[in-house]
């Protein structure tokens, strides 16, 4: 079973993401702040990380920077920040995709599936 880490401080959004991913056959874990999310992302193995940018503690950009220094796990940014500069910065730091809130949960699941499949093709996993 594929494992997804959701780093999101808005519990209702995190639970919505988790519920849709679990219905699609994924195992999903939630971290509700930047510090907890970074610790999980670096210490555990995930097939994909859903990462909010605006988090208490360490923000999403810093988490992305630190994860990319150690891992190639696909990262999808999910944020209310709609400015092009935020998207460009996130993608420039190594994010694989950027989804703005509000989002379609079914589109989110489709993107998760697509990125995991692509990563597996590239790594032979």
Automatic annotation (TrEMBL):
Role noted for this protein:
May play the central regulatory role in sporulation. It may be an element of the effector pathway responsible for the activation of sporulation genes in response to nutritional stress. Spo0A may act in concert with spo0H (a sigma factor) to control the expression of some genes that are critical to the sporulation process.
Q: Report the protein name in the record.
A: Stage 0 sporulation protein A homolog
One Pfam family here: Response_reg
Domain of life, per the record? Bacteria
- The answer to whether keyword Isomerase applies is no
Supply the source organism's classification: Bacteria, Bacillati, Bacillota, Clostridia, Thermoanaerobacterales
One annotated GO molecular function is:
DNA binding
UniProt entry tagged with the keyword Ribosomal protein? no
The modified positions for 4-aspartylphosphate read 52
What are the entry keywords? DNA-binding, Phosphoprotein, Transcription, Transcription regulation
Entries under PROSITE patterns matching the protein? RESPONSE_REGULATORY (PS50110)
Residue intervals of the Response regulatory domain: 3-116
> Which SMART domains has this protein been placed in?
REC
Q: Which organism is it from?
A: Carboxydothermus ferrireducens DSM 11255
């Amino acid at each position: 079973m594929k494992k997804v880490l959701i780093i999101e401080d808005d519990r209702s959004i995190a639970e919505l993401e988790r519920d849709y991913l679990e219905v699609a056959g994924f195992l999903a874990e939630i971290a509700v702040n930047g510090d907890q999310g970074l610790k999980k992302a670096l210490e555990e193995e995930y097939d994909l990380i859903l990462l909010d940018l605006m988090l208490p503690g360490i923000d999403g950009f810093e988490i992305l920077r630190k994860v990319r220094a150690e891992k190639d796990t696909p990262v999808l940014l999910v944020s209310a920040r709609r400015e092009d500069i935020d998207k460009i910065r996130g993608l420039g730091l190594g994010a694989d995709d950027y989804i703005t809130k509000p989002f379609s949960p079914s589109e989110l699941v489709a993107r998760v599936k697509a990125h995991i499949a692509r990563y597996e093709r590239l790594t032979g996993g």
